[in-house]
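Entry 14. Ran structure prediction on the chain below.
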Amino acid sequence: EVTGSKHLLEIKGKRILVDCGLFQGNHQGDNLKAIDDLKDIDAVFLTHGHLDHSGYLPRLVKSGFHGPIFSTPATKEVAKIIMLDNARIQAYETKKKNKDVVKEKDKVEALYQEIHVQQTLPLFQTKNWNEAFKWQGLDCLFQNAGHILGASSLRINCGEGSIVFSGDLGRFDDDIMFDPDSFDQADYVVMESTYGDRNHDRSLSPREELSTCVDRIKKKQSTLLIPAFSVARSQNVIYHLFELFKKEPSKKVPLFVDSKMTQQVCDLYEHFCDEHRLEKEFVKEMFSNCRFIEHESQREKLHTDAGARIILSASGMLTGGRSPEYLSLLGKDQNNELLLVGYQAEGTLGREFVEGKKPYWQGEVTLAKSFSSHADRGELKKWLGRTQKIKKVLLVHGEESALKSLSKELSYPNQILEKGLTVDLN
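Output, structure tokens:
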């Protein structure tokens, strides 16, 4: 499955957790059970900061973990923003669920609170890409994985053999992020397969898809709602709209961004300019093109203003943040349009749109084909093909169809690593 990434590596008497993510969609209930399987962890290695890779860390700390958390500096900053935001969401959701519960024993408890996030942050030990380091006799190395700021692939070498964890791999020739780097060699590779069953549609560019939607809302003087992940996807949308409006000024419409977390991540793009292709001054100009919503009065005015505009909000799967609220507010007007620009996990509201349903929405729905920040099947094989002396590939982080399809495509011995499955690599 695609969410809740956690891989337990037992090596030289140590128990290492590679990623520590929250489940989303159909498997959210597994968040309550997971801690039973995570006893006596010695260290965590974090490939990147997305919620489904980092969001369970405070729960681990709440349950007694106090070892090191290794990541890149940018990953720490992204994870900090995401964990704090998730703690606030949990506090809100828990309060809502307990509102009418009388008996204390029947009340639900949040997975963790902000205090547990604050206890988690000092455990981070940051390492730059290509900065070899040792831990407990193991040789460790992070390399750029593309995908989002700070995203990494990880190699751990115990002297007798080496294992690589791909993390989430980005696109080749991406407009913003650098190409993912491959390791020169490895005995075993644990590789994501989110899009292992397909190649991305390259018939349209992101700018062309946005341009078509903008033309329609300008004609109707209506609103285009774009729910997007706060990390990477929102910045991609902002970038392509900025380029579109710069090249075709007649198409320009106001762009409102209603997500505090998105704004915080935008600041990181300026701080970590060496980790992407964009110049610092360009980044400043690009984000000045947005109108960030910071106060309720701005939001109220936005609800009453007329004319064509774009509203970019989180979350990308319509599972939290402001996007469900906008879906409800704007959905009754059939002139308004919805543009989905990200992966929609099973069990999420966004997935219902992918499956042809239109809950709470009367207007047109467009499923963008060009915005993915995950490598497709061809790019996964390209990344893997640059690593020599591979003995076996373990496929993870994909729905069943993607895992099976990619498994058939690989020329290496490979195995689908199902949830809870133990593999002996000796």
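The longest strand covers residues 138-144. Will compare against last week's run tomorrow.
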